[in-house]
């Protein structure tokens, strides 16, 4: 089983990109990730 940190690092870029597309604001996407 992966630890939370491993899962977080594994999907960080995808989640950030998703939030950036959703919000249209880099600062918001960075804050949420």
TrEMBL record:
Molecular function GO labels: DNA-binding transcription factor activity
Record lineage: Bacteria, Bacillati, Bacillota, Clostridia, Lachnospirales
InterPro entries: RNA_pol_sigma_r2
GO biological process, one term: DNA-templated transcription initiation
Protein name per the record: RNA polymerase sigma factor, SigM family
Species annotation: Dorea longicatena
């Amino acid at each position: 089983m992966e630890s939370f940190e491993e899962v977080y690092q594994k999907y960080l870029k995808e989640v950030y990109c998703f939030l950036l597309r959703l919000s249209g604001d880099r600062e918001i996407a960075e804050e949420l990730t």
